[in-house]
Amino acid sequence: MSFKNTAAVSVLALCVGVFALPAFSATANLKVLDPDNDGTVSLAEAQAAGHKKFLSLDPDKDGTLDAKEAATAVHDFAAADPDKDGTVDAKEYAAEIEAAFKKADPDKDGTLDAAEFATPAGQKLLNLIQ
Questions:
Q1: What is the Cα–Cα distance from 101 to 122, expressed in whole angstroms?
Q2: Residue 11 resides in a domain
Q3: Could you report the per-residue pLDDT of 76-101, keeping only the tens digit for each?
Q4: pTM reported for the whole predicted model
Q5: 104 domain-assigned
Q6: CATH of the domain at 81
Q7: pLDDT in tens, 32-89
Q8: N or C: which end of the chain has fewer CB within 10 A?
Q9: Domain limits at 43?
């Protein structure tokens, strides 16, 4: 095989690997989020993981997230703050997780598998819970 062909094969392999990353990432994430090891994540499991994430985002431990604290997880802070008090509390954060979960569950079976986590909606949920 010539250098040119070897380089082309290497570039192709790299591209295939890059495009495969979301599915691999979703599978790895699924194992972490699935304590009962049934191959799926339920809303309760997502909420439990999300609560841990909420606590990690709240360094001042005041029970709320301001826009700066929530910036890495919550993409639309205004929507996550329905009472418009300038903070997202644990209940509001849980509501965001539930809404994201429902969007990531197109078959409405109440669980998410690796393929569902690999979608844009699934990635948004992962951002909230991991």
A1: 7
A2: no
A3: 999 999 999 999 999 999 999 999 99
A4: 0.77
A5: yes
A6: 1.10.238
A7: 888 898 999 999 999 999 999 999 999 999 999 999 999 999 999 999 999 999 999 9
A8: N
A9: 22-129
